[in-house]
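Why does this matter for the project? Reviewers at the last site visit asked to see concrete outputs rather than summary tables. In response, this paragraph embeds two records directly. Each consists of the residue sequence and, immediately after it, the corresponding structure tokens. Nothing has been edited or filtered.
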Amino acid sequence: MLPKILSDYLDRVEREIVKCNKAYIENYDEEVLSSSRVNLRLRLRFSQNHLLEINEAIIVQGKSLKFLDYRYHFQDGNNQLIFRYDSTPHFPNLPNFPYHKHLSNDVVSADKPDIALVIIEVKEILSLVDN
């Protein structure tokens, strides 16, 4: 059985996904490695054929969650990057290394966003595409 803080987080992720009414879930994988560690892998395909991939490695540390690694990758229907937040340590000169955000032609410093904010960002971009 998972600790409440972890099961609550996974429930919240599911609720955020349900709010994406113009998307379908290609993959939803909660890999429970132990009672305090989960790897989460999601692929959401949107009506415009855009793809959001969510990958998180999460552990319970004391009374909080710690994200060992994360990646939120969003691309268009032609597989062109729109953005990707991640914690891969490959841009050491950024102020909050290793946390950063890839854009189509740049990499900028960015804290780890809440998953709800990532989904809001995706919806805002898609609303521009729809118009």
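We now turn to the second protein, recorded in exactly the same manner.
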Amino acid sequence: MADLFEENTKGIEPLAERMRPRDFGDFYGQEEIVGKGKPLREAVEKDELRSVILWGPPGTGKTTLAHIIAEKTKGFFQPFSAATSGVPELRKLIEEAQKRLKFDKRKTILFVDEIHRFNKAQQDTFLPYVEKGTIILIGATTENPSFELNSPLLSRSMVLVLKPLTDEALEKIINRALSDATRGLGEHRAKLDEDAKAAIIGFADGDARVALNALEFIILSASRIVFSNSPLRQGYEGQARELENKPKDRDNAGGIKITKKMAEEALQKKAIRYDKKGEEHYNVISAFIKSMRDSDADGALYWLARMIEGGEDPRFIARRMIIFASEDIGNALPTALVVAVAVAGAVEHVGMPEAGINLAHGATYLASAPKSNASYKGLLAALADAKEHGALPVPLHLRNAVTNLMKELGYHQGYKYAHDFKDAKVAQEHLPEKLRGKKYYKPPVQTSNAPLLKKKGAKKS
């Protein structure tokens, strides 16, 4: 029998919140982390947990896992958002945690959502209290912790990687919601055909929250049930009414039968599968870069469109275009870098969706430009020598003689000032003695400033 709270909130809370797992056994899709015998589960069950950083895409269970840990350890669960609160609020919560530990002998599990929103100086606030055991910190982030969190905090925490949920895990989550009459949608006796279920799973793209919210909307629409206070309904009223006016399929047992067509109509469109944090993110940006490198403007536009439609951060695309302009075009067309930087500025000033036009402008320009990776290859070769040979001494004639002792030691002697020579061209050695004669930069014939570089090819004395 449902408790009073569940009865009162069932029509208000979204399905994803109602179906939040309360035990490791119901926590699907992250068995590598919470399976029996795994370090995290053992630490929780023995009440020996130390601070944890949960890293993963949205909807993979970071918040849910924090709730389960708090329940299993009997700790006081204190949520905190780094996106909406600051250090003063944090200090107040820590003071309360100190009192709770002193007077009630109860640990505080401080769950910090979006912990990467705190800069590294703000993150230092946690350190003394984590070290003393005043709080057990559970930080959730969608960003790479090695870049976004400071080293002292990482060294004191267990970092766990939550992966996008597999199709099998999402199917289990959907089936559980359909059969649970207390917290889920069991009272509707809805049945999804396999294609409808696959459509929801594809739309969710590894995100349990998206899958459950989509499922709830489809079932409510098909059942002619409208919870006006449900956040899920906002923005979909017209669409819901249209679906509700259509004839409904029911099986012999009186339950609602959901078809693929009904699911896709409710979701408005088939989702483009694009995980902004996973492998597909890298696959698509790779295809975009390679299309521009191969001077295929059409391919570049298509992959650009895929990223835009998939919700990729336009600033990420612009940054990659800036890198491409120097790595793959370089001095073959120096203005390519100017255009790429201008596109990045336009993205910042204009914003989406109109900034997509700026991105298309830049992508087609870069794809159509002559190509040269001579600067990039030259850098790699120079880096290899710098690494292999270490800190070779700077030739004496290239050193500034700022003291009399330096002059006596031969600093700056024999240096030729370029502007004292015709066309400011001078033949003198600029590499360490061990590397004399090495050629790092080898521009192709089509490089726009190749004639200039050819003139500089005078023999060195």
